[in-house]
């Protein structure tokens, strides 16, 4: 559900990671998931191609359906059926359909959900199918998010940075310097600004960290954090180095030491903080770029807000990890060329712009990014597009075992660290020692 309260990024996990808890499939769960894709075609010509879309915002769904209708009008022999899916159940739904041989032909997902499906043989290798136009228009670092063992298993097409949504009046009254893409705050300055904005009834910042892992890892790229390190043997190990420590320390210091961040929001999703943001309870809230859509819809009349870039690391480093939305083709699809032709149509520059605007996020394509509609200052579009070339693959993009490490190890450890319940030594022990034991089981 990229881009909103219920969606990827806008529910507290950036487009840097899907917002969903992967659950073990019980028999009942598998049946329920399978029911979401009744009678999926295998793309063998009898029922056309089936396109599983996870678009959920009204604008995004409408844009996808219009494009499907346009394709069908021009390609009656390669018709595509639109199938509505949900980010909340996508992983389990797809796993069940893959194992049952009833997968949709064209699959909308997120790049950090592809590794296990790719290694499991469920997704088609697109290396020889991707058009030269797409290959050249989408930057190489975006292609890295969908490439495993030198094979491409998805086309990355939308991405969502994490930005700072700010109350312009409160920042102006406090006299703080407003950052720009050319002159962002450092993490130290961001901490200082949050202190200056904190008043009797107002916190300088609210960190909605119900799902803290992807936010922490992705923002830590700016300070040189990587956490996951792949050796010459191809195996991944975890190290909690200096660059990994800066962002977690700032967040903890704001919440525990400075008391400039509301501790009550640490367990919230992003949408939960909006009423307090509108009511001057929080001067700033770091959120996915797509939250702008909710703010425009829900903010009270006259509420003056602005979009600011995330803080930068040493030397003005503004790199940030993302997990782009992707389009893949099922290995079982019998008409892969037709499926890729549809993807190529869907991701023409003008169409990519329509999809990005519908989801309130950024396209990966450089031609689409240059469109004036995405360069306007209105609703902070220009602030986001100015940072697009700083977006990089999320650190855990191709790490097998990451979902288990995230859910069982990193999420509770970071939650306790940010709340002040454990110190940095215990945090490092859990992330590294406990974490490496988890990853080792996937790399035997």
TrEMBL record:
Signal peptide: none annotated. InterPro entries: Bact_solute-bd_prot1, SBP. Gene3D superfamilies: Periplasmic binding protein-like II. This is ABC-type glycerol-3-phosphate transport system substrate-binding protein. It comes from the Bacteria. PANTHER family: ABC TRANSPORTER SUBSTRATE-BINDING PROTEIN, ARABINOSE-BINDING PROTEIN-RELATED. It holds the Pfam family SBP_bac_1.
